[in-house]
Amino acid sequence: MAIVVLDVRKYTIGTAMKSAQILRDKINSQQLTLGMLVTLHLWPDFIEIAQRAGLDYLILDGEHGPHDAEQLATACSIGRMIDFPILIRPAESDYRTVRFAADLGPCGFLLPQVKNSQMLDDVRDGLYLPPRGKRRPGGHGNRWTTDYTQPAWAAQVENDWIVLPQIESQEGLDNADAIANHEITTAIAIGPYDLSADLGVCGELTGEKMFAVYDQIREAGRRAEKNMWMIGDGPTLQQRGFTFLCIGEPVTALEGMIRTNVTGLRKSASSPA
């Protein structure tokens, strides 16, 4: 497998959203790109831990997580200062919710329950200033840019947003090509559990039906010349040819590691010397 080396020097001059540009290059070059979805607990030090551990990005879960706006903004600020990509999954994929998420200062978004390209038109309005959209910027997200003119917003922020629309329903599946081809889509994405429920095979994520669905969505992305974001067991997904991976939730991973250690120790303690 060829190893792609990024020339990070090109991001150091006149660049605001450097982290987004680095992540976009990794996604588009089909490098193995690894991240985690932070749902259960979020603490500032974890951003540095993730970077030191070799992850390429984090997604802060505003759909199912208990994180408040200040926690999200603080995490985004740390990512901004250390050039580590922090994305947010907002609770909804509508203009008002996405616009507020953008104000918190992430470099991109994982959009839940995207069913058609018209929903992405609404998202576009929440991410771009007039005349491209309807956004009214504010909050921590203002710190991405050096001035507040429309050309500065376009060059330093808006052109670099990472946008990952999740297909999580039959309707979204039916419109996969339109979603993948939308101008704001960086890579097509999936919500495998919700999609399995909508298709009548709830939780059967490794069955023949779901594997066929994964391939269908990935092909829609390929036709649009875009990668696919996939969440699940990293080695299995890598074997199936996926390169843009979310390898789980940090606290769940920690629990699994502790359980493995505890089980091993108890097993060794009960075995005869």
List the helices and strands and how they pair.
Layout: H1 18-28, E1 33-38, H2 45-53, E2 57-61, H3 69-82, E3 86-89, H4 95-103, E4 108-111, H5 117-127, H6 150-156, E5 162-167, H7 170-174, H8 176-181, E6 188-190, H9 192-198, H10 208-223, E7 228-231, H11 234-239, E8 244-246, H12 250-270
Parallel strand pairs: 1-2, 1-8, 2-3, 3-4, 4-5, 5-6, 6-7, 7-8
Would you give an account of this structure?
The chain has a single domain, classed as TIM Barrel. The longest helix is centred in the C-terminal third of the chain and has 21 residues. It has 273 residues and is an alpha/beta fold. It is globular and about 75 Å long. It has an eight-stranded parallel barrel, surrounded by five helices.
> What amount of the residues lies in strands?
5-15%
Give a count of the beta strands, DSSP E runs of length 2 or more: 8
Q: Which architecture does the CATH hierarchy give at level 2?
A: Alpha-Beta Barrel
Summed over residues and divided by their number, the pLDDT gives a mean of 93
Instruction: Assign an overall shape.
Output: globular
Q: In CATH terms, what is the fold-level topology?
A: TIM Barrel
CATH class division: Alpha Beta
The major pleated sheet works out as: 8 strands, parallel, barrel
- Order of adjacent strands in the largest pleated sheet: 1-2-3-4-5-6-7-8
CATH homologous superfamily placement? Phosphoenolpyruvate-binding domains
